[in-house]
Batch of 4 targets.
Target 1
Amino acid sequence: MPNKLARAVRVSMHNDNALKIGLFGANCSSGRAVTLLEERWSGAWKDCLALARTADDVGIDFMLPIGRWKGYGGDTDYQGATLETVTWASGLLASTKRITVFGTVHAPLFNPLIAAKEFVTADQIGEGRFGLNIVCGWNEGEFDMFGVEQRDHDRRYDYAHEWIDIVKRAWSIDGNWDYKGEFFNLKGVRMNPKPFGGSHPITMNAGASANGRTFALKNCDAFFTSATRTDPERTAERVRDIKSEAKSYGREIDVYTVGVVTCRPTQKEAEEYHHYATVECADWKAVRDILALKNISPATVGQETYEAQRRAYANGMGGLPIVGDPDHVADVLAGLTAAGLSGIGISFVNYGRELPFFADEVLPRLQRKGLRAARNGRI
Ligand SMILES: Cc1cc2nc3c(=O)[nH]c(=O)nc-3n(C[C@H](O)[C@H](O)[C@H](O)COP(=O)(O)O)c2cc1C
C-alpha cells in the first residue's frame, strides 16, 4: 500500500512556495510563441524530456500542456505538431521526481471512465504528481475533425459537470455503482486502482465566460485567469472576486495566471529580443488565421481593436508579457503574489535555452523576497 498523500499536499504541488511557477505549452511546436524565429521551440519529445528534467532540478513547480489537435496554419503551421497530453505527462512523470505534470483534457472528446483510468495510471507513475486541466473546447474547427459536434456554450459546461463528477466517483467509490444523468447512463461501474495515496489529483480550469468560471469554482482546485501588468489593483480585485464567489459555493480556490517571459541580462537586450521575436519575426499569417477562427477581424471588431488583438496574439497567444532583466522579471512576479495570485504558467520562445538563465537569476531573487523556498524545498 502506498503511503497516504493529503490532498492539500497535492494542491500545494508538494512544496511551500508562495508563488508557484510552471511552464505552459511545451508539448506544442512553437510553444506559445507565434514566431518565425529559427530557435522557436520544437515540442519534440527529446526536448520536452530534457526540459522537464531541468525544470525538476531547478525547482519549477509544474508543467501545463496545451490540448491542441491540429495546427493553426501560417508559415510555421503554428502548434502543428503536438504531443497528446496525458501520455506526455506519464512519460515526464516517470522521468522526474518532484514536479507536478498536468494533462489537458477535452471532456467532450474522452469517455470519462477511460479518462479517469488514464489519469490514475499517470498519477500512479508520478506517485501523486499528476494534475488535470479540464477543457471544454475552444476552437470549433478542432471538433469537426473528430466528427464530434460541439455543444452550445452553456451546455458544454453542463456536460463537463457530469463528466468530472463521474471521474471523481471513479477515483473514490469502492465496489459497483451506477450513474444516471442527462448526458451519461452508466451501469455496474467498478474501477481500480485509485489515484496514488488515497487522494485525488489537483484539478484546474481556465474558463473565461461566466459559465466556465462557475464550473471551475465549483469543481476545481485552481482557476487560471488573466492578469494586467498596467493595473495590479484590477488584478487584485479580480482575484478577490473569484475567491469570494468560490466561498459562496463553500469552496477555496487558488488563482493562477499565464505569462510570456523574455529575460536577458539587461533590460535593453530583453526588449530588443522581444521586439525581434514578436514583431519583426512574428508569423503574422498564423496570427491572422488564429484571429479568424475566433471571428476577430477589422470588420467584426474595428481596426483599432483588431490591431491590439494582433499584437496580443503575436506575443504568445495572450498572457502577461514579462520582458526585462532579472530584477524587473522578479519584481513583476512578486507583484502577482501581492495581488493574491498563487502562481503563473510561463512560456519562453525556446524553453530549453532560456530556463537555465531564469533559474539562475530570477528564482534566487524570488527566494530573497521570501516567495520561494530554496531549490527543491519540499513539504
Ligand atoms: C491557461 C489556459 C490554458 C488553456 N488550455 C487550453 C487547452 O489546452 N486547450 C483548449 O482547447 N483550451 C484551453 N484553454 C481555453 C479555456 O479552457 C477556455 O475554453 C477559454 O478560456 C474560454 O473560456 P470559456 O470556455 O469559458 O468560454 C486554456 C485557457 C487558459 C487561460
Target 2
Amino acid sequence: MTIDNKLWGSDWQEVRREFSLDSAVAHLNHGSFGAVPVPVQKFQDELRRRVESNPMKSLSRDLRKQLDEARLASAKFLGADPYGFAFVHNATTGANSVLTSPILHAGDELLVTDQTYEAVKHAAERACQSNKARLVVAKVPLPTRDSEELVESIMAGGTKKTKLAIIDHIASPTGLVYPVKKLIEELHRRNVLVLVDAAHAPGMVDVNLDSLQPDFWTGNFHKWCCSPRGSAGLWVGEEHRKLIKPIIASWYYNEKYPDSFRWLGTDDYTSYLSVPEALRFMEALGWDRIRTHNRKLARYAREVVGSVPGMVPVMPEKDEELFEAMTLVQLPDGVADTEEKARALQARFGEELRIEAVPIAWNGHGYLRLSAQVYNAPGEFDRLAEGLPRILNRK
Ligand SMILES: Cc1ncc(COP(=O)(O)O)c(C=O)c1O
C-alpha cells in the first residue's frame, strides 16, 4: 500500500496548524482524549471570559437558554429527538446515569461483552450487585470474521432473563465498529433493552438515533468531534424517560427528563456550549473528507506498523467495514500483556520515541491501538514503525 503525505491535499499543513499539538511529537492516540482545535479553544476561552465578567448574569440568567441552543444543535447532529437528549460530562457519566436508574431487578441478567470499556463494566457490575442481577459477558472473537460473527457472538450471551445489553458502537480495546443497528433490532426482537456505548461514535461515523432507536445511548463529543473535554450526550427513548435520573440529585431533579440534567451543581458548563462550535469547525473541513482521510490512514497505519517483525495486524477476514479511524496491531508475545507492562511501554514510546501511542493489555495479549485523525500524516506512522524494533528488542 502506498500513501503519500498529500493524502489530505496540499492544505494538510494548515489543518495540522489548527491544533496546538506539540509538533515534535507524533500523536497517534486521538481515541483516548481527543484534541481541541485552536479556534474551538478560543471560543471556549471567550465563553469563560464572559462568565468571569459577570458570573451571576452568566450562570443564573443566561445559561439556560444557551444550554438549550447547544443541546438542540447537538441533538440535530446526532439525528436525535432533542427531548431525549441531555448533556453529560462524559460517556462514563452517561452510562452510569442509566445503570443507576431503576432498570434492573432481582434475577435479571445484564449482557456486556469482553470488549466493553473497563470503567463501564465496573458500573455494570455495581448495578448488578445493587439490584441482585447477574452480569453475563459475551466473548467476541478476535480477529473477527465479519459483522455476522459479531452479532452471533453477542446474541449467544442472551437468555430469557436478559433485561439489558450494553453494546459498543466502537469498542475501546479493539477499535472494532459494531453493526449497532442490526444488534439493536436483534436484541429488541428478544425483548432486551439496549444501552449503546457510543463513546467513540460521534464524528468517527454517522450517527442517526432516529434510525437506530436504541433505548439508551451515550456518546462523547470530546473524542472525534474535537470539542472540549467534558462534553458528551445521553439519549433516552421516550418510553424510558420517566425512569432516568441524573446520578447527582440537584435543583431540577424532580423535573422531567432531560430538564432534570440541566444543572448538576455549580460547574464550568462551557464545554457543552462549545459543542456547536466544534461541529462547525469539523463541518467546515468536511466530514466526508475527514472520514476518508482517517479511514485510509488507519489502514496504512495497520499495514506499516503491522509489517514490523513480530507485529501482527488484526484484520477482519471479510469485512473491512469493521474498522474506521482506529485499527489494531498485536504486539509480540509477552509485550504489554499486562496493564503494568502496557503502561511502561506507553511511557517508553512517549519518552524515547516522542510518539504517543496506546499499548493495550487485553485478554492475555498486548496490542497497539492506532488512531488516525485529520492532523495525522503517514510519516508519523512510518516513524513508529522505524522506532518499534529498537523498543521491542530492549524489553
Ligand atoms: C467504549 C468506551 N466507552 C466509554 C469510554 C469512556 O469515555 P469517557 O472517559 O469520556 O467517559 C471510553 C473512553 O475511551 C470508551 O472507549
Target 3
Amino acid sequence: MTPDAILALYRWVLADCFRCGRTRVHAVRLDAIGTPSGRIYELHACGHCVLELEEERQIHAERRGDVYQPGALGA
Ligand SMILES: [Zn+2]
C-alpha cells in the first residue's frame, strides 16, 4: 500500500502533532488523555508521524505473525 493510500484511510483535522511538535498541521486524532481534574488532552499526529507509526505497527504485526491492517491508529 502506498503512503498516500495509507493516509487516505484517516480523517484529518487541523491540530498540533504530539510526536514531532509541528503545530497547526493536518493531523489524525489518535486518543485523548483525561486528568484527575477533568481536563482532556487530545493527541493528534501529523502525516509524517502517522506513516512512521504505521511502519512500527507493520513491523510489530509481522514479528507476531499477524496480518498488518493499515488505518487502525487510534481505533
Ligand atoms: Zn508529527
Target 4
Amino acid sequence: MAHVPVLLNEVLETLAPREGQIMIDATVGGGGHGIPIARRLSPGGTFIGIDWDEKRLKELREAIGQEVLDLEKLILVCSNYADLVDVLEREGIGKVNGLLIDLGFSSDQLGEGKGFAFKGKEEPLAMTYSDYDTPLYQILGTLGERQIAEIIKDLSDERYAGRIAKAIVLERKKSPIVTNHDLAKVVRGAVPKNYEGGRIDPATRTFMAFRIYANRELENLGRILGGLTEIVRSGGRAVIISYHSKEDAMVKHFFKDLAEKGEAILISKKAIKPTDLEVKQNPRSRSAKLRAIEIK
Ligand SMILES: C[S@@+](CC[C@H](N)C(=O)[O-])C[C@H]1O[C@@H](n2cnc3c(N)ncnc32)[C@H](O)[C@@H]1O
C-alpha cells in the first residue's frame, strides 16, 4: 500500500513554507510531505531531502522530476539525519527556515526485502533503513537472553518480553533466526494463545522494538535534537512527528527545556494529533503526535 503522509495539513500550516525559503525534510521517504513543501518554496527556494534508505531517494528523484519546480537548489542526500549538521556543512547550507522529521518507517518499505513486516513475503531479517548497517539477523546472534528481554521490554513494553527472549535463544540453538517469518514464528509460539484478545499480532511489539534497536532510533533522535539550534535559524521552525511514546517524551522534554532556557517558543503546548477522519482514512496515523517549536 502506498504511503500516505500523516498530518500533512498540520505540517504545512506549521512550517508555512514560502517562496525563496530553505527547508529540510530529514525523513523525506516518498516525498509525501517533502514534495508539497518543495512546491511552496518555489520559485527560488532550497529544498533538502534526507533519507537513510537509498531506494526512497531513487524513487523520490523520479517523482520530483515530474514536478515543475523552480528551486534555486534541490539537494537529496542519503544519510542518517543524526549527521545533519555535517551534511549541511558539506553542502554549504547555513541555517534553515524549517525542518521536518517524520519518524519511523514508511509503508513503502514493507515487503521490499528489509524484513520490517511480520506478515507477507518471507525476507531476510535485515530491519535496517540503510543497506550498509548491520542486519538484525547478525545482531541477534550476538545478544544474550537478558539483553534481548531488556530490548523488547524497554522499547515496546511487551509484557511477555522474558518468554520471547527465552524462546529466541532456544530456537537459535536449533537453527539461526534469519528471516522475518523465523522471528514472527518464535514470538507467536512464545506468548499465550489469547494474546491481547487477538487484537494485535503477537509479533507487532517485538518487531517494533528490534527495528528501533537495530537502527539506534532513540540515539539518532537525541543527536538531531542536540543539533537543532545549529540547524534552524532564529524565527525558523522545527516539526517532529513521532509514533512511539519514548520518542514523543524525548521531543516533549527537549522542546520544553529549550523554551524554558528562552531559546525557543512552543508552537502548541500539547501534541497535535490526527483527527478521527484522518485515522479512519489512514489507520497508520493513529499513534502520531506532532510537536513544533520556533527558534528564538
Ligand atoms: C515515516 S517515513 C517518512 C515518510 C514521508 N514523510 C512521507 O510522507 O512520504 C520515515 C522515513 O525516514 C527514514 N529514516 C528513518 N530513520 C532515518 C534516519 N536516521 N535518517 C534518515 N532517514 C531515516 C525511513 O527510511 C523512512 O523513509
